[in-house]
Amino acid sequence: MFEQNSSSSSTMAAESALCSVSRQRERSRPSPAQRLHNLTSASATSSTSTAIPLPQNVFTNPSIQPSSVVNLSHSTDVVIGPMTQYQGPVSIYYMDASMEAHAMQAAAGINSSSNRSRDNSPSKRLNRNTILLITLILLVLATALIVLYVELNRPRSEAANKAIYFGNTYDHDTFPNLGNGHLVIDRIQWGASSNVRPLTVPLRRPIPYVLITHIGVQSIPCSNVYKCSIKMRTIQDAAVAEKILPDIQSNFYVSDEGNIYVGRGWDWANTYANQTLAITFMGDYGRYMPSPKQLEGVQFLLAHAVANHQLEADYKLVAQNQTKTAKSPGVNVFREIRKWPHFYGCGLDDAPACGSELGMTRASWDAKQ
What we know:
The chain is α/β, with parallel strands linked by helices. It has 9 helices and 10 strands. It has helices spanning 2-28, 32-45, 56-60, 97-119, 122-152, 187-190, 225-241, 292-307, 331-337; strands at 50-51, 91-92, 167-170, 175-177, 184-185, 207-214, 252-254, 260-262, 276-281, 311-319. It starts with a helix and ends in a 32-residue tail after the last helix. A 6-stranded mixed sheet has the order 5-8-7-9-6-10, sandwiched between helices. The protein has a two-stranded parallel sheet with strand order 1-2. 39% of the residues lie in helices and 11% in strands. The chain folds into 3 domains: 31-119, no CATH class; 121-154; 167-365, Peptidoglycan recognition protein-like (Lysozyme-like, 3-Layer(aba) Sandwich). The longest helix is centred in the middle third of the chain and has 31 residues, at 122-152.
């Protein structure tokens, strides 16, 4: 009985001592940070271990936290704790204060370059380009509105309100305009010679007759200002040198493009008859057809003359072949002008001679002046 009690007492004493030892061991066990410090300290002084510097890329990569790196390879029975000796190959990396600062600077540089790259990203550039484009469009629209406002509020001259007029409205005020694009090319503009004899017979207005002629003799119609100006100078030179006339024959000439070329103009009588306004189609219209612009140009000129009291309101329009034996103004032009409201059928069939009501003789239609 006594032996059993003593045995039980000894067992309890042993268990109590074991618990005490366990508690002491628990209290003496270091924390994880202390164990890592002891591990690195022990590796620095251990003769069986070698301290290998941590590769540079470990510090320059911000995704790796060097303070928590423990690399173990080909090791068994490894215990992380207050141990100073290990069995097997052990590699311990260390990082002092200078290496840690270098790693932080490298990480900061990577973050700043990343921020710069984000600032220059395509989306931001696209946003800037879009803003610039919108600004440019707004400036263009504002300029267009200002120009439109100025044009709408510009004072218009009295001549510009007429359908047919002489006004300097074309090509920076170079050529007067009859309207609808029919230009008036003056003598100085088509290059008329100034070395001619002065005209002596004035043209009295309002004029009662309009005489239509053409150049004839297989003349090709001209279709631009350059070619028609050369043709006008050729006609003038031929009239002065070959026909011994003081100047070009007609008062006005009309080109295929519908422009009006000034011959003797409004002030002086033509070479055909003193009481007529002579208008010549530039070409041979026994062979060629007059263009719609050419016919319209003549009609605009006549309407302008009536509006400005150059012609009588009931003027008579005749062709040259009605006043004398001639092919002028060509069958194609004659066919067209017969449809015009002021056409006068004198000299045809049994009709009286043209100008007889004014006392004009047949010889007066060939004045040669």
